[in-house]
Amino acid sequence: MRVPVQIISFSFFLFSVTFVQSQDITCTAPVISNGYVVEPLPEYQKDAILKYRCNERFKPREGIPRCAKFGWTLNPECDEVTCELKSTTFGVKNIKPEGKSIFRAGESVEITCSEKTG
Residue 83 in contact with residue 103, Cβ under 8 Å? Predict the structure, then answer.
């Protein structure tokens, strides 16, 4: 005698969940050319702001460096203070030193204006 047999199979999918412990995000104080870190710490925690100053005749770059996953959000750097003499020379008779247009802090430029004639 034949008896109909229904075969039911169950598949079990095995999976594993791995929990990775996150490491604390930290940054170290960078060496700043022509500047220094104010109140340096051995380590800075995530989102900490780096306070720094620049030496005389230098200024900090724009922006605020924050500690992030891959280091500081921007490089804390000090740029030299300069001023630029634009190319407008209308009414200018003479410029000394001649041919120079960018000057460092403390440098001088002499501009002689043309005399108006009636």
Answer: yes
Buried b (16+ CB within 10 A) or exposed e, 67-88: beeeebbeebbbeeeeeeeeee
Residue with tokens 């900090």: 60
Q: 């870190």: which residue's tokens?
A: 37
CATH fit for domain 26-80, picks 2.10.70.10, 2.60.40.730, 3.40.50.720, 1.10.10.10: 2.10.70.10
Chain segment 21-72, per-residue pLDDT in tens: 557 899 999 999 999 999 999 999 999 999 999 999 999 999 999 999 999 9
pTM higher than 0.85 for the full model?
no
